[in-house]
Amino acid sequence: MYQIFTKEDVLMYISKIRMQNFRCFCDTSVEFYEGLNVFIGENNSGKTTVLKALQLIFDNSVSKKLSIDDFYKGISSFDEPPQITITISIQETESEKIEDKAVVATWLTKLNSPCEATLTYKYFLPETDLEEYKKELNERDQSLISEWDILERFLQRYVSRIYAGNPISKNRVESEYLEKFDCTFLDALRNVENSIYNGKNSLLKNVLNYFLDYNLKSSIKKLEQDLEDTDSKAKLDECLTKLECCRNEFRGQSKDLLDSIRGRLDTGHILSLVESTGASVCGKPDIEGELSESDILSTLKLIIKSNSGMQIPIFNNGLGYNNLIYISLVLSNLEIITSDHFGENAKIFPILLIEEPEAHLHPALQYNFLRFLKEEIKNKNISRQIFVTTHSTHITAAVGLDSIICMESHKDHILARYPSLVFSDKPDDIESKKYIERYLDATKSNMLFSKGVIFVEGLAEQLLVPRLAEYRSLPLDKCHIAVVGVGGSTFKHFIKLFGGGIDENNKNYTLSKRVSCIVDVDPQKIPIEGRNRRWKKCWPFEVGQNLDSYEYKPISSVITNLEEALSKSNTENVKIFYNKTQKGKTLEYDLAFENKDSPLLVSGSVEISKDVSALIESSSLTPEDKSKAIFAAFYLESVEDTKGSMAFELANNLINNFNLSEGSLEFNLPLHIKNAISWVCRGVCNEPQ
């Protein structure tokens, strides 16, 4: 990729946007990262609206006039004509380019470092029309004419303004400086073939023209910066001579070509008709022409050369690959418009807006493309800032937490959340962030898009919990609940994203969705005496039976550690669910305990040992529970080495049984599984009575 800025430059950036009465936003502020910003969230959570708001200020090709549908539908008072306000904050970083300071000098609203500049877009009814607006509003027949009808009548009188600095002063921004920004928008429904087909298109033509004799022009530019060196002067003269020779050679060849064409024209016959009409009285017409390099570039077409050597027209190429080609041309054009090629007309602040880059791209291409954007903007090789909206888990996995902004839609407002800012500079938070980013694949990143999350310990739980939820009439897929396997010891890392175990100061950045953590009880014991004392898992009915020889833990350290973390953070979003009956062990054991002798449970032919049978008999369990414990222990022993395949078979059995119109078998859920599913779905799905 081609260099626009030197690596030492740390530049001003758009740090925040505030949107008032605009579409789905009543009054919402969104803070931005310096480079890549990736917006994720459910439909109608405001992702595209943020891009539209940026366009209203920075994109000269977009109409500044809005429609009635652009007003926030929750406006409560029309006593004063509603107005739409969009405020942009531009903030300096550690150092800036001189051009940046010159552009924003009259926009500054904060002079202390880091200084801040402000641009404000307003769409409003002028004061000259206020009296008439209020008169119509007060005199209307409320049964026939709504306040929105009055607003729509006056909308044609609304005007738009972009103010620089403090909006109270109403200083309109100078177009000369605003034009130093370039805003390129790639929408989700883009059909790019016409934009890349041939050189007649301005985008392709600009790129081709810029890269004509690119090596020579680049060498000249470098040599011009070191004219004090004698060798540089000589090399510069040599390059200039070569460039002029190339141009002269083209002129000669194009003249010969035109002369050849003219020689083939029967101009005499054409001109005889001119003379017959008397048009030649003041002079004799003739044919002349000139062929420029730009004219030739307009005839060039993009083609695709396949590995077999075949040439494929761009229209026959895949939509996904054509989108990537188009975006490549856009990125090249960003280099062009910010280069010295345009002199004082060069842009200094290119902004790229991409809506759903996953359109037409398979997962691997999505991942690679976003990794490319992330690295290039990190090195300041392309656009100053990039804003992306997406529904793709592959894209979120590619960019990591530091670029993600989660847009959360609540009943009457929308909030922006920042997963990367959840973590402090403390060692355990640094470790948690690194761990999450290392394992944030397409499956796990689904939790960022969901309405709720169930964290489980392993593959068996991932397969079975969604099936078990159907027996509660709460289909997790329809409720948009993600089931994510994280492993017992790593719950602590993931719950921080949702407010579990973090500093109070970072709570505003956490994702405000419900999280159920389903954890195995896994009781343990350790010998009181002996050399190699270590905790080992034991049966639940074994706990407390031999206090002279063993110390027992009725619940696993995973549970106690999680409870401790949650007690410190005082969060209401994250809850732990485990078997509190003192009869539980693992998911497999608990399911078997609650469904003794169920034919839905697939097991092998392993028999439990006499020692286990004796422990059950000597326990304080009731006769019924002893029978359940024997079956559960037998079941767990038989599937211990094949938990994955067992879970797969059981999941299939549960699906088939659930779908039976008649004769379906009852299947009981352990209470903590019921509660975990019900709690995470509350407010998202209607729970059965």
Question: Which features does this protein show?
Answer:
Rossmann fold; 21 strands; 6-stranded antiparallel β-sheet; alpha/beta; 3 domains; 689 residues
Verbal overview:
There is one protein chain. By secondary structure, the chain is α/β, with parallel strands linked by helices. The chain has three domains: 13-194 and 323-406, P-loop containing nucleotide triphosphate hydrolases (Rossmann fold), CATH 3.40.50; 205-264 and 288-300, no CATH class; 421-521 and 556-579 and 670-689, no CATH class. It has 23 helices and 21 strands. A hairpin with a 5-residue loop joins strand 9 and strand 10 (311-313). Helix 8 runs antiparallel to helix 9 (230-264) and helix 20 packs antiparallel against helix 21 (623-639). The radius of gyration is 35 Å and the shape is elongated. The two termini are 60 Å apart. InterPro entries: AAA_GajA/Old/RecF-like, Bact_Antivir_Def_Nuclease, P-loop_NTPase, TOPRIM_OLD. Pfam families: AAA_15, OLD-like_TOPRIM. Residues 448-522 form the OLD protein-like TOPRIM domain.
Helices and strands in order, then pairings?
Layout: E1 13-22, E2 25-31, E3 36-40, H1 47-58, E4 84-91, H2 98-104, E5 108-110, E6 116-124, H3 130-139, H4 147-154, E7 159-164, H5 175-178, E8 181-186, H6 193-196, H7 202-210, H8 214-224, H9 230-264, H10 267-276, H11 293-299, E9 303-305, E10 311-313, H12 319-337, E11 349-355, H13 363-378, E12 385-389, H14 393-399, E13 404-409, E14 414-417, H15 427-439, E15 452-456, H16 459-470, E16 481-485, H17 491-494, E17 514-518, E18 524-527, E19 536-537, E20 550-553, H18 557-569, E21 574-577, H19 587-594, H20 610-618, H21 623-639, H22 643-658, H23 671-681
Parallel strand pairs: 3-12, 3-13, 8-11, 11-12, 15-16, 15-17, 17-21
Antiparallel strand pairs: 1-2, 1-4, 4-6, 5-6, 6-7, 9-10, 13-14, 18-19, 18-20
Helix pairs in contact: 7-12, 8-9, 13-14, 16-22, 19-21, 20-21
